[in-house]
């Protein structure tokens, strides 16, 4: 795989996102390594990095079978990323929930992802450079779970906005703005997928925008 091929096929985007997200993870953690919120962000950013590595592998797959295997790694990262986002949002909003409760729904999807075709039946090549997912019978349920969990985290943050100090309100604006990009593009992506339309691999760019916005929120006022 040459550098030109990486640029032409879009593989440079997840590579750049991987490096940047890793740097952001350590940047925020080093601001206050003992703060729970900083630690959760570190895990959030590192899972996002793994997510982008998986996307890079999908884009670089030589066969549909290889792409299907790599896509499962990509979705595994999603199943870790979404509850981590909820944990971050709850902590940001001053709520305390047992991690086992937050991660349990995602973990229930893992066996379905790896041992059945209920979520994904495989992938097909689009004739250019991207693989499209063939959703299983529970793909719509899975997509709804992902979207609803993201929205739940946003709901908690918006609720916290109204009783927060001015400084914290500015931080919440940055966080909700970043995640809002993910919600908007993710909704469009899901609708296009369900309709059978071609979907562009924009997740690496949106994940980078979201995590960068959240990282910036740590620089507004005092670190959490």
Short description:
It contains eight helices and two strands; from the N terminus they run H-H-H-H-H-E-E-H-H-H. The chain is mainly α. It has a single domain (3-217), classed as Rhopdopsin 7-helix transmembrane proteins.
Overview of the molecule:
By secondary structure, the protein is mainly alpha-helical. It has one domain (3-217): Rhodopsin 7-helix transmembrane proteins (Rhopdopsin 7-helix transmembrane proteins), CATH 1.20.1070. Helix content is 73%, strand content 5%. The chain has helices at residues 3-8, 12-31, 36-59, 64-92, 99-115, 139-161, 166-195, 203-217, and strands spanning 120-125, 131-135. A two-stranded antiparallel ribbon has the order 1-2. α2 packs antiparallel against α3, α2 (12-31) runs parallel beside α8 and α3 packs antiparallel against α8 (203-217). The protein is globular and about 50 Å long.
